Amino acid sequence: MIGTPKLALKCADVAQVDWKTSGAGDCAGLDGSGKSLEGIELLHESVRLGQSLQIMYVQRDCCRLRTH
Questions:
Q1: Is 47 buried (19+), middle (13-18) or exposed (0-12) by CB count in 10 A?
Q2: CA separation for the pair 14, 40 (Å, rounded)
Q3: Would you say the pTM of this structure is higher than 0.85?
Q4: Domain limits of the chain?
């Protein structure tokens, strides 16, 4: 169940995070799929940063590794 859209939306609800207005939906997609343009770009940016720092990692959460 970890990393699923259903869990992401449920966690946001439990934490009282408004998925549409908090920015979470912009990053992960309003449906929680992780396929929004912002989320994909953040993932690519995180991978590029990790490579430049010679950090190897596997990360499903596009919003966790923000660099700004």
A1: middle
A2: 25
A3: no
A4: 5-52
